[in-house]
Amino acid sequence: MLAGQADFDVVGEAENGRVALDVVAREVPDVVLMDLRMPVLDGVSAIERLQSTHPSVQVLVLTTYDADTEIVRAVEAGATGCLLKDAPREVLFRAVRAAARGESVLAPELTAKLFGRLRAPKQESLTEREIEVLALVAKGNTNRAIGRELSISEATVKTHLVHAFTKLGVDDRTAAVTVALERGLLRLNKPRR
Q1: 76 and 141 assigned to the same domain
Q2: How far apart are the two ends of the chain, measured CA to CA in Å?
Q3: Where does residue 8 rank: exposed (0-12), middle (13-18), buried (19+ CB within 10 A)?
Q4: Are residues 103 and 149 in the same domain?
Q5: CA dihedral defined by 108, 47, 38, 68, rounded to 10 degrees?
Q6: Would the pTM count as exceeding 0.70?
Q7: 1 contacts 89 by C-beta, under 8 angstroms
Q8: 165 and 78 in a common domain
Q9: Residue 191, SS3?
Q10: Residue-number span of the structural domain to which 29 is assigned
């Protein structure tokens, strides 16, 4: 389909992200059409590597997934734009030409999602250890018991809790557990009957 356009020259294809990097190194194209979900090396990782090795190559993401987190990650990694794979041919052709000029391209269906995500208040992620500490708090453990369970000092437990409180925007253990549950960071095991 792309090769049928007079101003396009398809110089390579790749079945995974690692092969895509090899093709780019060999051919140095103007534009790369990149999928996000690929074996061996995913699209976001491939984009990050391309940005460090070939920053002049424009990457246009084509994906069936309209998950805003994946698209934001791709743009943050250096993608010039993103289209859904079911975009009409003419839209794809225009997007490739725009990407070659260094212009940003974003499917209209994705624009609202991205703006919503960018406008949402930032939520700093909890570390794995902070989640472990909160999970033990949720079970009713004291700081001392948590320290014994995780083989860390009671002071370290308190530090993890303070960091978790700050990230979750709360002031106490109960609120921290409640917010973590609401955000899906913790799951309570229901007792068996």
Answers
A1: no
A2: 60
A3: middle
A4: no
A5: -30
A6: no
A7: yes
A8: no
A9: coil
A10: 17-119
Q: What pLDDT is recorded for position 73?
A: 80
| CB-based contact 112:154 (threshold 8 Å) | no
β-partners of residue 32 are: 59
- What total number of domains does the chain contain? 2
Partners of 81 in beta bridges? 60, 105
At 65 the pLDDT is 64
Going by pLDDT thresholds of 50, 70 and 90, the confidence category of residue 107 is confident
Are residue 89 and residue 42 in the same domain, yes or no?
yes
Task: Judge if 41 and 133 occupy the same domain.
Answer: no
Same domain, 81 and 175: no
H helical segments located in the chain: 17-27, 43-53, 68-77, 89-100, 108-119, 128-138, 143-150, 154-168, 173-182
Say what the pLDDT of residue 67 is.
60
Assess whether 29 and 115 both reside in one domain.
yes
Q: Which two tokens stand for residue 92?
A: 């794809």
